Amino acid sequence: MQHDEMIGKVQALAQLPSRGPAERATWAVLATLGERLPSGLADHMAAQLPPELAASVREATGSSAVGPSSPAAERFGLATFAGRIAARAGTDEDAAVREAAAVLEVLDAALAPELMDNVAGALPADIRELLPSGRASDETG
What we know:
The protein has 141 residues and is mainly alpha-helical. It is built from nine helices and no strands.
């Protein structure tokens, strides 16, 4: 999926007024995911994203062409996840949760199913609840 298509889908799903807020929301969610996921997994995710979006994941993990700088993921739940997204996107936490759900739904369609399975498996249950309903319930058993 191309950059413009992803941003357009996030805008529609999150019911955002324009592409600017959708771009900020997408960047904020991807950067926060980059902090939460193990760096190898985050790098695999970034490799399947358009370059403009992959950069936000790589910046969060500290990855570069030389390689990842930190293999460990930060461990935090939904409250911290939403707080970081809100701070990055310049919105409140309720909007951040809604926007995160939209971005995760677009990622679910854009990334390889096996990769999304791994992403879902690396997230705690409270964040995993933001995934599309089929994937969220697949991972909670």
